[in-house]
From TrEMBL:
<keyword id="KW-0378">Hydrolase</keyword>
<dbReference type="GO" id="GO:0006798">
    <property type="term" value="P:polyphosphate catabolic process"/>
</dbReference>
<dbReference type="GO" id="GO:0004309">
    <property type="term" value="F:exopolyphosphatase activity"/>
</dbReference>
<feature type="domain" description="Ppx/GppA phosphatase N-terminal">
    <location>
        <begin position="25"/>
        <end position="307"/>
    </location>
</feature>
<keyword id="KW-0472">Membrane</keyword>
<keyword id="KW-1003">Cell membrane</keyword>
<dbReference type="Pfam" id="PF21447">
    <property type="entry name" value="Ppx-GppA_III"/>
</dbReference>
<dbReference type="InterPro" id="IPR030673">
    <property type="entry name" value="PyroPPase_GppA_Ppx"/>
</dbReference>
<comment type="similarity">
    <text>Belongs to the GppA/Ppx family.</text>
</comment>
<dbReference type="InterPro" id="IPR048950">
    <property type="entry name" value="Ppx_GppA_C"/>
</dbReference>
<protein>
    <recommendedName>
        <fullName>Exopolyphosphatase</fullName>
        <ecNumber>3.6.1.11</ecNumber>
    </recommendedName>
</protein>
<dbReference type="InterPro" id="IPR043129">
    <property type="entry name" value="ATPase_NBD"/>
</dbReference>
<comment type="subunit">
    <text>Homodimer.</text>
</comment>
<dbReference type="GO" id="GO:0005886">
    <property type="term" value="C:plasma membrane"/>
</dbReference>
<dbReference type="InterPro" id="IPR050273">
    <property type="entry name" value="GppA/Ppx_hydrolase"/>
</dbReference>
<dbReference type="Pfam" id="PF02541">
    <property type="entry name" value="Ppx-GppA"/>
</dbReference>
<dbReference type="InterPro" id="IPR022371">
    <property type="entry name" value="Exopolyphosphatase"/>
</dbReference>
């Protein structure tokens, strides 16, 4: 046995599939801290491949896959639990994102999570909070290629967060077409960004942050240009931003930008990013901003190492949602415990993927009746809609889709053709969860505090056998009728449910 002090430190990696660049950071877990041991960045310009129908063109897909192949070389030998990959704005928007994800499977043997904008904002804040020593309340602004995240938080907790559809790549395409720079284009871009900010600005004014912090490429590039101009403190102020805007307007095209400190690969999107930041300063009345190296990928890293915190966030989210929609928590808990017991019999030794699905089954059971707050008829559909489209901190889009799918098929006819497309999981992975939740819901249909007897289940693919205590069905005729109805639903879907005593 190798002594603890001789064991090789754990290494973890996080990849951020951004709209402008793909980033990878690898860290070593040393005691209670993370030691960054390598960073990798490739300019992919994914967002520039989105057409008017919101489909990624083949060239953009190829650029992304080529980059992933390079990253995969560095990750050889990494266990799945030590790698986390998050995709942001462009893959959220792309209608054919599933094509990219499907082709990526053969290159990168780790799941790619498409995360909602608010989850991206939360993780960015976490990355900044871990790498920035400033105490007090922080405003964090991150301008990416397709979206801008704005977060106010304190310590490691967020208080207000939004993700707005404005980024340096998308704004460059729209307001600086063919790289043309003009006062009119700059004013139009700034006005558009201010209009995006208009609906949320007052909420941020009420937060009274102590320090404004910027992260990621756009703000880093602006800081480097300011330092090259002689502002050695690197602080971004409103006055300095306005001076920089005037200087940029002295050029006619992005390619001609000749600013000390500005790299060639940042030139095409610099004016657009500058317009967005100037608008954010104006809308939020920011006096000055410093830069932080922490961003989304660092947030992913720290959360990966601090798994209990991630679980705690999702637990808090589920509890808050149950409270918000007045869920009968006693009934939800009964269904949850029953579902977990049945699934443990079906999957006695689940691997990492099925363990995650088991966890999602528990949350799905806890929240399966949120739709009752809308109406009883069709409440399973209402529940599905709420879980799919609500802001749920800690959950990525795939996880929300799984939750929505489970509660959608908890009762009534099994119209499996209505199941949504998934990227990380396959439909067949969800079938045992759906069957389990349906049984748990049916078995707890009486909504009583009297505990259920021990119920056994055996599973052989689509054929399941439920064994009930002898005589129990005779004493629970309504339940027996519900289970017979359930058998009919299963049969119409091509499944078999046998019931014995």
């Amino acid at each position: 046995m190798i002594p603890d002090h001789c064991q090789r430190p754990r290494e973890i990696a996080a990849i951020d599939l951004g709209s402008n660049s793909f980033h990878m950071v690898v860290a070593r877990v040393v005691g209670q801290s993370l030691q960054i041991i390598s960073r990798h960045k490739q300019r992919v310009h994914l967002a520039s491949g989105l057409d008017e129908q919101q489909n990624l063109d083949l060239a953009a897909i190829r650029r992304g896959l080529t980059c992933l192949a390079m990253f995969a070389e560095r990750l050889q030998g990494f266990e799945p639990e030590n790698v986390r990959i998050a995709a942001t704005y462009t893959l959220r928007q792309a209608r054919n994102a599933h094509l990219f994800l499907k082709r990526a499977e053969s290159i990168m043997p780790y799941p790619i999570e498409i995360i909602p904008g608010t989850e991206e904002a939360r993780l960015i804040y976490l990355g900044v909070a871990h790498t920035q020593p400033e105490s007090g309340r922080k405003l964090v602004v991150d301008i990416g290629g397709g979206s801008t995240e704005l977060v106010v938080g304190e310590n490691f907790d967020t208080r207000l967060l939004y993700s707005k559809h404005m980024g340096c790549v998308s704004y460059n395409q729209h307001y600086f077409a063919e790289g043309k720079i003009s006062g009119e284009n700059m004013a139009a871009a700034q006005l558009a960004a201010q209009q995006k900010m208009e609906s949320i600005a007052s909420q941020y004014h009420k937060q009274a942050w102590d320090k404004a912090i910027g992260s990621s490429g756009t703000i880093k590039a602006i800081r480097e240009v300011l330092i090259a101009k002689g502002y050695n403190d690197g602080v971004i102020t409103n006055k300095r931003l306005n001076q920089l805007v005037e200087q940029v307007l002295s050029f006619k095209n992005n390619d001609e930008l000749d600013l000390p400190g500005l790299s060639d690969d940042r030139k095409p999107v610099f004016a657009a990013g500058l317009a967005i930041l100037a608008a954010v300063f104006q809308s939020l009345k920011i006096e000055e901003m410093i830069y932080s190296d922490g961003a989304l990928r660092e947030g992913l890293l720290y959360e990966m190492e601090d798994r209990f915190r991630h679980s705690d966030i999702r637990t808090r989210t589920a509890s808050a949602m149950a409270s918000q929609y007045h869920v009968d928590i006693d009934q939800a808990t009964r269904v949850k415990e029953c579902a977990e017991d049945l699934y443990a019999q079906v999957e006695p030794q689940p691997g990492p993927a099925k363990s995650e699905l088991s966890t999602l089954l528990g949350w799905g059971a806890l929240l399966h009746e949120v739709g009752l707050s809308i109406s009883y008829p069709g409440f399973h559909r209402h529940s599905s809609y709420l879980l799919r489209y609500s802001t749920m901190p800690g959950f990525n889009l795939e996880q929300q889709t799984v939750l929505a799918t489970l509660v959608r098929f908890q009762r009534k006819a099994l119209k499996l053709e209505e199941m949504p497309e998934l990227s990380i999981y396959k439909r067949k992975h969800l079938y045992p969860l759906i069957r389990t939740l349906r049984l748990a819901v049916a078995l707890n249909g009486q909504r009583t505090d009297e505990p259920l007897p021990k119920i056994h289940v055996k599973a052989d693919k689509e054929s399941w056998e439920l064994t009930l205590p002898a005589g129990w069905q005779e004493n629970n005729k309504l339940l027996a009728a519900d289970l017979r109805q359930e058998q009919e639903y299963w049969a119409k879907a091509g499944w078999e449910l046998a019931i014995s005593s």
